[in-house]
Amino acid sequence: MTGKLIFFDVDGTLLDHDKRIPASAKQAVRELQDAGHEVAIATGRGPFMFREIREELGIDSYISYNGQFAVRRGEVILRNPIRPDLVQKITERALELDHPIVYMNDEAMKANIERHDYIEESMASLELVDKTMAWDKDYHIGREIYQCLLFCTIGDEMKYREEFPELGFIRWHQFSMDVLPLGGSKAQGIETYRKLAGVRPEDVYAFGDGLNDIEMLQTVHNSVAMGNAVESVQKAAKHVTKDVAEDGIRHGLELVGLL
């Protein structure tokens, strides 16, 4: 591969504050592809949660679940599920504390209870309520689970961090955390992808805005934080572009010399 490799986060990066892809971002992605660069998505979402985005942008490569399941040009290149015994143990503890869990694999996500205010409020921020959520308390049994969503307040977060040192936790909403295999991250997923694609580290670029993007932005050679990112995320990146709603993607690509 002779072109560059560019990864884009989804929420707050490709999608603006109204969950739409700005026209300038669509055009920028098209120009990158026409120039021979490889464009991919790096997100905490599951594959089924951004299928329409991939179709709209003509992208068939991605890192999902914060690096636990990756596809390049339509072919699966990485699977890193959570150990089944750990999924069961954290389920049992969450039930004791009255905290719901959502199990996620490459095909779907299922909650372990019928409904909960924390689930509805958290998922509403992604505009996914009643679109991809369903209930199956045994969905994790006999399936590879790449990520869980654990619904609890910040005040209860430390209980899980202390009791489950074999797992990684990333908070993305006041009522929800991503639960991952320890060490799993977008950064690790990108490194696996990069080696397979035969791309030099200096030819890799990443754009992001969330707390789950910090390690990626610190690790990738050419990193760009969105102008709408919080200060800690901006500090993790080498460059900071404009707000996603102010043509941030295009401005960032111009900033690093790709457009």
UniProtKB/TrEMBL annotation:
Keywords: Hydrolase. It holds the Pfam family Hydrolase_3. One of its GO terms (cellular component) is cytosol. GO terms for molecular function: magnesium ion binding; phosphatase activity. PROSITE patterns: COF_2. This is Hydrolase (HAD superfamily) in cluster with DUF1447. The lineage of its organism: Bacteria, Bacillati, Bacillota, Bacilli, Bacillales.
